[in-house]
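lol so apparently i was supposed to do this last week
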Amino acid sequence: MTPLYEYVIIGGGITGISMARLLQMAGVRSVRVLEAAPEAGGLCRTKRVGGHYLDIGGGHFLCTKYPEVYDFVFSHIPKSEFNFFPRVSTIALDGIELDYPLESNIWQMPLERQVEYLISVVQNGEARGLPAPRDFEGWIRWKLGDRIAETYMLPYNRKIWGVEPQEMDVDWLHKIPRLAVEDIVSACLEHTADAEKMPSHQGFYYPKHGGYQEVFDALLNPVADWVDYSAPAQTIEQGDGCLVVNGKYRARRVINTAPWHTLAASPLFPPHIRSLIASLRHNTVVVSLHEEDYQTPAHWTYVPSLDEPHHRNFYIHNFAPHSDPRGVYHETNSQRWQSGRGEVYSHPNEYAYPLPTIGWADTINQILDWAQSLNIHGLGRWGQWEYFNSDVCIYQAMQLACKLGHESYVDAIVDDKPEDLL
Ligand SMILES: Cc1cc2nc3c(=O)[nH]c(=O)nc-3n(C[C@H](O)[C@H](O)[C@H](O)COP(=O)(O)OP(=O)(O)OC[C@H]3O[C@@H](n4cnc5c(N)ncnc54)[C@H](O)[C@@H]3O)c2cc1C
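anyway here it is w/ flavin-adenine dinucleotide bound
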């Protein structure tokens, strides 16, 4: 008879490993983590290519609005092991590089373009008192006007998401800047933006050694023995008073951090749940390393031009000075990816972003409610199918640990509270 675990966690990315670690800190010892790949880390992995540290899941930086997440991370890897950087990100538009966000930096553009963009803003739907549309394209036009929408926001969003913005919902837009019309106009006239009104993530921590995986590894180390590698969860069934994963892992509760699609063939999943899962969409992003000389002080640049396949460039040496100076990596939606354009190395991330297509929130809520009634909990970017960054994945794991009665993990957090949090 196989052991009966208190928890089987599906997926050994930062969500699954944080959950395992929180349970361990709360004194739970009966946990197994199943990881499909031969190594853990998911999107938070770093690969050393020559002298470059490449974050193969794309640009990863530590920044959170949750102090308890900093406490948790810094109690595993001290804050002194990180550099802190005020964020420098730029937008490559019309042959110039201007600071992000565009709404605060229209003054950096040629005069003719400044006039067009200000007219676009003051004539937008919001300024005219119209209600906000319920699709992303309509919202962009309503918020910024047609000219900015057509030359910047729509091309960029088509590139990154790989679906028409018209097909996307608007309930995730806390992720992007939302300046009022008067703030955009004042920033242009005054050549400065009110820092209070800037979007979040004005600075970030990045490890002094290696890449973002240092954060992940610090969380993994204490629970490494709990992980089974090359062990994709394929089926979940109901056993005798428990759940059984892959016909052999018996558990009182299952925590799923993997895309639901990888489990949906299980007989346990009724047809209506399978069809809900099938309607959830995601994109695939290729991360490619290039060797180029660069002068920019930016950490990364947004590239809306449809002439270039990629949508973002990252200048590794600017946030990882220990990495070789000429390393640049690109993020490219797989639909636009073309190999053989000078990349030194490339890595496809099949599950990169869960897409907030219209109705996604209702769909995932139905799946989560059904699963929870069977003691299966969806958690993290894929389990909750939401555009969470790694800090929010950790925060969500904390929320679930508390909900399941394991809030005593808090007592095991060593206090390394930074004084100068953002
Ligand atoms: C381009 C890009 C940029 C990002 N930038 C940042 C950033 O700057 N800061 C930040 O904090 N976050 C960032 N993120 C988000 C961050 O990567 C994710 O929030 C986080 O890594 C998600 O962790 P996860 O464990 O939920 O999922 P994943 O990292 O995807 O891990 C899921 C794991 O489950 C495994 N798995 C899949 N199916 C199965 C199965 N059936 N059985 C067992 N295992 C399975 C996978 O192999 C994987 O290891 C970025 C993401 C992307 C794509």
